[in-house]
Hints:
By secondary structure, the protein is mostly helical. 60% of the residues lie in helices and 0% in strands. It has one domain (2-179).
Amino acid sequence: xxxxxxxxxxxxxxxxxxxxxxxxxxxxxxxxxxxxxxxxxxxxxxxxxxxxxxxxxxxxxxxxxxxxxxxxxxxxxxxxxxxxxxxxxxxxxxxxxxxxxxxxxxxxxxxxxxxxxxxxxxxxxxxxxxxxxxxxxxxxxxxxxxxxxxxxxxxxxxxxxxxxxxxxxxxxxxxxxxxxxxxxxxxxxxx
Length: 191
Ligand SMILES: [Zn+2]
């Protein structure tokens, strides 16, 4: 069983791969670090033969999993994949709307977080999106994820507007840290 779960996990590394094309920042590193930590926790739990946390392992395996036997949920919908948490949950949809970041014409993918992140990365280069908050999207993703964790583990519900406000503030602080808008993370420390 551990081997099956492990191979399924490694087939589903879209989220990790999606970040590679994007300029590295501490946001991405935090997200990826969190995923690695969760992954090692999951594998350790399975390896030791303790009862596997159904909810956690299903989340990590993400995209094409059947519904688990039980699930603590944030919105009452049947499944909570990465796509659901970051793009499809009603609170999430509201957050993207408040940030004036338009979903694709046919809606965000329900199965591929890679496609959804790719769409957002592409949006950062679109001239027609200049009035949106698209360049803050990594901070929005990060705050959606933190909001979901606050609800899961602390039973604290954070509103879409609070998450967006926080994300935009954090993005602004980050952008002010550079000598120009296009200064990369690394070059800031080379100056
Ligand atoms: Zn939901």
